[in-house]
């Protein structure tokens, strides 16, 4: 049995492939290597190990005991067939999108649509609408407007608290009427179940949610509705101290001072006295 030694370009060691006869064709060697290595969706290029000369003809003969190097390349026929298939499928869809532009929804109309899956619009506009609607849950309205360059329908001016215009174009900004407008706080961080929707924007403790509606916390509404109890005056609660108590306190202080004065003093020691001998 004859053999040919082959090595892939990414490997360091050679493997041997046995065959009958003195020579083997390049095409037969490729088929046996692909069957042995279980290769699919690729082509092989064979070249001599000593001279790096590539075998371009599949009918060329390779003598026994020859060392060759194998290179894997993508299948050219498979890639070209995929390109033809994709182009054939993309053609009618592109034509239909161009011919049906008049019936498609605009981007501004698509932003207000709830069911985007069944909306008649281009895929690009649908993606923009999905990005816009999803960003409203995590970002402020101004940031979502910056992403698309449009003014969201629930945008509220941060200067005057009135919707319908951007803060840069606020009519009360820089004028004398800017002080009369009350800035309304946002209900960020408060769950929806803890809020109560109201209609009066001048109500005490009113806030604005993400959809532009006026709300107030339920616990605050209950506190404002409850009547405040009046506390009694301070003069009714205080009572004057009796005179006997003050006199007793003064006498106790004098007794304590007298006891301190009558306490015996420690004996004095003289330096000239001699200590007794033991």
TrEMBL record:
Q: Which UniProt keywords apply?
A: Metal-binding, Nucleus, Zinc, Zinc-finger
Example GO biological process term?
A: protein ubiquitination
Q: Which Pfam families has this protein been placed in?
A: DWNN, zf-CCHC_2
**Compartments, record wording:** Nucleus
Which residue intervals define the domain DWNN in the entry? Answer: 4-74
CCHC-type domain location is 157-172
Query: Segment Disordered: which positions?
Result: 231-278
A molecular function annotated in GO for this UniProt entry is: nucleic acid binding
Sequence ranges of Low complexity compositional bias: 243-252
Q: Which domain of life is it from?
A: Eukaryota
Q: Which SUPFAM superfamilies match?
A: Retrovirus zinc finger-like domains
Any single GO CC term annotated in Swiss-Prot or TrEMBL for this entry = nucleus
The record's PANTHER family line, in alphabetical order, gives: CELL DIVISION CYCLE AND APOPTOSIS REGULATOR PROTEIN 1-RELATED, RETINOBLASTOMA-BINDING PROTEIN 6
What protein does this entry describe? E3 ubiquitin-protein ligase RBBP6-like
Question: Which source organism?
Answer: Danio rerio (Zebrafish)
């Amino acid at each position: 049995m004859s053999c040919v030694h082959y090595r892939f370009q990414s490997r360091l060691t050679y493997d041997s492939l046995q065959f009958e006869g003195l020579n083997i064709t390049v095409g037969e060697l490729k088929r046996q290597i692909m069957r042995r290595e279980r290769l699919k969706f690729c082509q092989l290029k064979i070249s001599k190990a000593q001279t790096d000369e590539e075998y371009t003809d599949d009918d060329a003969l390779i003598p026994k005991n020859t060392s060759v190097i194998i290179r894997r390349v993508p299948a050219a026929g498979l890639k070209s067939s995929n390109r033809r298939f994709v182009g054939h499928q993309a053609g009618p869809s592109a034509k239909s999108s161009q011919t049906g532009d008049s019936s498609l929804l605009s981007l501004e109309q698509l932003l207000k649509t709830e069911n985007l899956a069944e909306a008649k619009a281009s895929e690009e506009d649908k993606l923009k609408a999905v990005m816009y609607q999803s960003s409203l849950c995590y970002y402020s309205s101004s940031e979502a407007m910056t992403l698309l360059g449009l003014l969201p329908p629930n945008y509220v001016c941060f200067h005057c608290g009135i919707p319908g215009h951007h803060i840069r174009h606020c009519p009360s900004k820089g004028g004398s009427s800017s002080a009369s407008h009350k800035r309304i706080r946002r209900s960020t961080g408060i769950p929806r179940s803890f809020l109560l929707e109201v209609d009066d924007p001048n109500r005490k403790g009113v806030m604005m949610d993400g959809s532009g509606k006026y709300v107030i916390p339920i616990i605050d509404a209950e506190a404002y509705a409850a009547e405040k109890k009046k506390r009694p005056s301070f003069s009714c609660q205080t009572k004057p101290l009796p005179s006997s108590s003050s006199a007793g306190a003064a006498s106790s202080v004098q007794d304590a001072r007298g006891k301190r004065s009558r306490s015996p003093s420690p004996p004095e020691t003289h330096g000239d006295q001699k200590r007794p001998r033991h």
